[in-house]
Each structure stands twice: as structure tokens, then as C-alpha cells.
Design a protein that fits this description.
The protein is mainly beta and 157 residues long. The chain has one helix and ten strands, in the order βββββαβββββ.
Length: 157
């Protein structure tokens, strides 16, 4: 019997939520268009006698990400300006939730800890854009998985 992933179990990119907890205050980031965070292992190349190939050993990790959102908030610009003018940096948490009610796999909730802004657009004008948006790059140093997707129910004949 052949089985396949049912289309209804794919996750809609619009069926998600993103929250930032900054100085104890929760901000629902409904203005977010795109969010992506990734973990990359730090790898050390290992050479050994008797083997001509290179091997690799993980020795840590780093978390980086990017958000694109509509140009409708000064929140992150103010955080960057606070750093520029006072030297005081702000670290915060982000919670990303994927939950498509059509899908049978449930929801996934990921928390990023100690998020720190790497770069932000401080001002923007664009005569060719109907809607202004902006990119924000960030790093993070902690992560948690509170809710996990379940296995999809496969279709078949």
C-alpha cells in the first residue's frame, strides 16, 4: 500500500503567531510578515592518521534569525537607539507558534531566549513601494520546544 502526506496536513504560513516578551511586557507581533530562526553547529575539522578524509566534530552552536515586518512600529528602533545612546542593550524572548486548525498534526511552540538585535533599519523611504516593510536580524542564546507537532495521518489506497 502506497502512503502519502495529505495536503491538509501541510502548515499554512499565515496560521501562526509571534510574541516578544520585552522587559516583562508581552507584545503580540501581528505586524510580522516573515520570521525565521536557525541553529548552526560550530564544527571543528578533525584529521586523523590512516584516514585521508576530513571528519568534523561539533563543539557548540549559535542561534541567528531574521524577521520581516510591516514598517509600523518604532519598538525595535528605540531598543537600538537606547543601545547607541546609553550603551544599555536589551535582551528579550520570542515565542513562535505554528498552529493550522485544518491540519491533524497539532501545534508547535518554540521559545527563543536572550534574543538580541544585530541590525535594524533605522529609517526608510521608498517611492516604488506601496507598503513599507523592514528586516531585523537577531541572535539568540537559548531555545525551548514547548509543543511539538504529532505525526501526520497518511493517506493511502
Amino acid at each position: 500500500m502506497t502512503q502519502w502526506l495529505q495536503a491538509k496536513d501541510t502548515i499554512s504560513g499565515q496560521q501562526g503567531r509571534l510574541y516578544a516578551t520585552i522587559n516583562g511586557s508581552v507584545e503580540e507581533m501581528a505586524y510580522c510578515k516573515k520570521f525565521e530562526a536557525k541553529i548552526e553547529k560550530n564544527m571543528t575539522e578533525v584529521k586523523v592518521l590512516g584516514y585521508l578524509g576530513d571528519q568534523n566534530k561539533a563543539n557548540g552552536w549559535k542561534g541567528t534569525g531574521n524577521m520581516t515586518f510591516y514598517y509600523v512600529t518604532s519598538l525595535f528602533r528605540q531598543m537600538m537607539l537606547d543601545y547607541v545612546t546609553t550603551g544599555k542593550d536589551t535582551y528579550f524572548d520570542l515565542v513562535a507558534v505554528n498552529e493550522d486548525p485544518t491540519s491533524s498534526i497539532g501545534k508547535q511552540t518554540v521559545t527563543l531566549k536572550n534574543v538580541n538585535i544585530s541590525s535594524i533599519i533605522i529609517a526608510k523611504l521608498d517611492t516604488e513601494s506601496q507598503l513599507l516593510d523592514e528586516d531585523l536580524d537577531f541572535t539568540f542564546s537559548g531555545v525551548g520546544l514547548q509543543d511539538s507537532f504529532t505525526k501526520p495521518v497518511l493517506g493511502g489506497n
